[in-house]
C-alpha cells in the first residue's frame, strides 16, 4: 500500500527556532495496539471474556515501515522520515474473573527504530532507537443478555476500558506524556461453523498536541474483524481486520486525518495451549501514524490447567455429528416400526398403532371403528351400532321413527327399528315399564301438536303390543312441541324435534308397575285419544311422500 503521509508545507532547512519549538509537541505514533486474549482478532476484540481464573500471556512483535513521514507541500516526495521504521514488542497478560470480567496488561517496548535527522523539525539528531512505550491496562465486562459461553454461538457484546500510563519516552514518539483513556464497545457474532464477525467502537482520550502544523488529540476509534476456520481439525483459521481512528477536533484548515490499517493473517490453535498468528498489511489513506507496511507475529499461551484451554480445544475440534439413527426394527412384521409401534410383539394395522384390532361386542366391527363397542350391531345395524340399544334409562334408536305426513301412520321403513325395540324389551324382562314419548316441531298450534304427538305415541305403543310386549309394561304420552332439542329455525333442526323417545321408568314402591306420567297441559287441551293402531301392515298411502310434519 501507499505510504500514509501528510503534506505539511515543510521547507527543509528553513525552519526557525520559534517554529521548531511550536512543532516539538511529540506524541505516541503507535497505532498498532494488540489485544492479549487467545481468541481476540489481533487489534479487534471479541466480546467473550476469558473463563473464570483462566490466564493467558504472550507477546506481539510488529514491524512498521514509515509510520511517521513528512512530504513537501504540493508533492508526494518524501521530505523527512521522522520515524522511518519501528520494531516493537508488546508483552501481554490477561486473566478472567467470574466468566464476566477480563483484566489485562500490555507493556510495549520499542526494540529498534530509525529515521532521518530531525533538525528540520527543531531537534538535532535522530529519534532514539530503544525505548519503552506507555504501559496499558485493559478491562472487559460482558453485557448482560449478550454473554456468550466459551464454545457457544450467537450474538455477544461487552464494554471495554483502558488506561495508558506515561511510562514511555515522549521525545522518541513512544508516549503521549500523560495518562490516556480508551473506553469502548464490542459487538460480535459467532456462527455454528465457527466464523466470527466483530465490530469495535470507542474513544481514545489523549492530550492535545500540535505537530508540524497538524492538531492531534482525542479521537474516535473503530475496528472490523473476522475469523474464518480454514482447516478446523488442525486449528488453522484466517483472520482479517480493519482498524483506525479519526480526531474529534481539527482546525478548519487541517486535512481530515483517518489513520487506518488493513491487516490479514493466519492463526494456528495448537494442541499445547499455544496460539500462533502471523500476518501483515498496511496503511490506507493519507494520514499521520498509518504506515506504508506492517508485518506482525504473535504467540499467546494458555496454560492447560484452565477452562480457557478447554474452550480453545473445543473450538479446534469440529462439532461431533449426531449419531446415525438405529436401523428400523419391526419384530412383528406389521410395517409399523420403532416407537410408532405400540405393540411391537403383536402385528396390527398402522391405523391402530401396530396393535391388533379388538372387537369387544363381537359384531365384526373393530372397536376403533365401532361407534357402539359394547353393543353388537346385529344384522341390520350400522357402524357397529344396533338399531336399538339400552343406555341408562333410555332405549336409544339409530334412526327416527317416520310417520305419514300429518298422520299417526308408521311408515314401513321404521318397522325394523321398532322390532328391535321390542326385541330389547323381550330380552330384558327386568324392565317393568317404558314410556313412549312423541314430540313435534313448532309448526301449528299447541292443541294440534299435542293431539298429533299423542296419536303417534299411541301408534308406536300399539306396534310394540302387537310385537308381544305386555300392556302393563308400556304407556305413551304426546308432548307436542313443549320439549324441543334444537331451535325450530331450520328444516334440519325441526327434523330433530320430530322424534319418538323410549324412557325406562323406575319401579314404584308398593306397586307392580310405575304410573305413566302425563303432561297436564296436554290433558286439559285434548279430548280422549281415538286409537288408530298402526300395524306392521301399512295402510294405503303414498310411500314416496316425505314427512314434513
From TrEMBL:
Residues 391-508 form the OmpA-like domain. Residues 320-330 have a biased composition (Pro residues). It comes from the Bacteria. Pfam families: OmpA (PF00691). Residues 1-22 form the signal peptide. Residues 315-361, 509-549 are annotated as: Disordered. Gene3D superfamilies: OmpA-like domain (3.30.1330.60). It is found in: Cell outer membrane. Its main location: membrane. Keywords: Cell outer membrane, Membrane, Signal. The keyword Membrane applies. This is Outer membrane exchange protein TraB.
Amino acid at each position: 500500500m501507499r505510504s500514509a503521509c501528510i503534506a505539511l508545507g515543510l521547507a527543509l532547512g528553513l525552519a526557525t527556532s520559534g517554529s521548531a519549538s511550536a512543532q516539538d509537541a511529540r506524541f505516541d505514533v503507535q497505532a498498532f495496539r494488540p489485544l492479549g486474549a487467545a481468541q481476540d482478532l489481533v487489534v479487534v476484540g471479541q466480546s467473550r471474556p476469558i473463563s473464570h481464573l483462566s490466564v493467558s500471556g504472550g507477546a506481539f512483535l510488529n514491524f512498521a515501515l514509515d509510520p511517521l513521514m513528512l512530504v513537501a507541500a504540493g508533492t508526494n516526495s518524501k521530505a523527512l522520515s521522522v520515524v522511518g521504521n519501528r520494531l516493537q514488542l508488546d508483552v501481554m497478560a490477561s486473566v478472567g474473573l467470574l466468566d464476566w470480567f477480563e483484566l489485562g496488561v500490555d507493556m510495549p517496548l520499542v526494540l529498534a527504530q530509525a529515521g532521518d535527522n530531525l533538525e528540520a523539525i527543531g531537534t538535532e539528531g535522530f529519534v532514539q532507537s530503544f525505548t519503552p512505550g506507555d504501559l496499558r491496562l485493559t478491562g472487559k465486562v460482558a453485557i448482560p443478555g449478550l454473554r456468550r459461553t466459551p464454545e457457544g454461538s450467537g450474538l455477544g457484546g461487552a464494554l471495554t476500558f483502558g488506561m495508558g500510563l506515561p511510562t514511555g519516552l515522549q521525545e522518541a514518539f513512544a508516549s503521549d506524556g500523560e495518562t490516556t483513556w480508551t473506553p469502548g464497545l464490542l459487538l460480535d457474532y459467532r456462527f455454528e461453523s465457527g466464523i466470527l464477525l466483530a465490530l469495535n467502537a470507542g474513544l481514545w482520550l489523549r492530550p492535545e498536541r500540535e505537530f508540524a502544523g497538524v492538531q492531534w488529540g482525542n479521537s474516535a476509534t473503530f475496528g472490523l474483524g473476522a475469523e474464518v476456520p480454514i482447516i478446523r481439525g488442525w486449528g488453522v483459521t484466517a483472520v482479517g481486520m480493519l482498524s483506525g481512528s479519526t480526531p474529534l477536533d481539527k482546525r478548519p484548515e487541517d486535512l481530515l486525518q483517518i489513520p487506518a490499517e488493513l491487516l490479514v493473517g493466519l492463526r494456528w490453535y495448537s494442541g499445547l495451549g499455544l496460539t500462533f498468528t502471523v500476518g501483515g498489511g498496511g496503511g490506507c489513506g493519507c494520514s499521520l501514524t498509518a504506515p506504508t507496511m506492517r508485518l506482525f507475529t504473535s504467540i499467546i499461551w494458555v496454560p492447560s490447567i484452565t477452562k480457557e484451554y478447554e474452550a480453545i480445544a473445543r473450538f479446534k475440534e469440529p462439532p461431533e455429528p449426531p449419531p446415525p439413527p438405529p436401523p428400523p426394527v419391526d419384530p412383528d412384521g406389521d410395517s409399523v416400526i420403532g416407537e410408532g409401534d405400540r405393540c411391537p410383539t403383536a402385528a396390527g394395522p398402522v391405523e391402530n398403532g401396530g396393535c391388533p384390532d379388538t372387537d369387544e361386542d363381537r359384531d365384526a366391527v373393530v372397536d376403533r371403528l365401532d361407534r357402539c363397542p359394547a353393543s353388537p350391531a346385529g344384522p341390520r345395524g350400522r357402524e357397529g351400532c344396533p338399531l336399538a340399544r339400552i343406555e341408562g334409562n333410555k332405549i336409544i334408536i339409530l334412526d327416527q321413527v317416520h310417520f305419514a305426513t300429518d298422520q299417526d301412520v308408521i311408515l314401513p321403513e321404521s318397522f325394523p327399528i321398532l322390532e328391535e325395540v321390542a326385541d330389547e324389551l323381550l330380552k330384558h324382562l327386568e324392565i317393568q315399564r317404558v314410556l313412549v314419548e312423541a314430540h313435534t316441531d313448532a309448526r301449528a298450534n299447541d292443541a294440534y301438536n299435542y293431539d298429533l304427538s299423542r296419536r303417534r305415541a299411541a301408534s308406536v305403543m300399539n306396534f310394540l303390543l302387537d310385537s308381544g310386549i305386555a300392556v302393563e309394561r308400556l304407556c305413551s304420552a304426546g308432548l307436542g312441541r313443549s320439549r324441543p332439542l334444537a331451535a325450530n329455525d331450520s328444516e334440519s333442526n325441526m327434523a330433530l324435534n320430530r322424534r319418538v323417545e323410549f324412557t325406562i321408568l323406575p319401579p314404584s314402591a308398593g306397586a307392580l308397575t310405575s304410573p305413566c306420567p302425563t303432561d297436564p297441559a296436554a290433558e286439559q287441551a285434548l279430548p280422549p285419544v281415538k286409537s288408530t293402531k298402526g300395524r306392521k301392515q301399512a295402510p294405503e298411502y303414498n310411500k314416496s311422500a316425505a314427512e314434513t310434519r
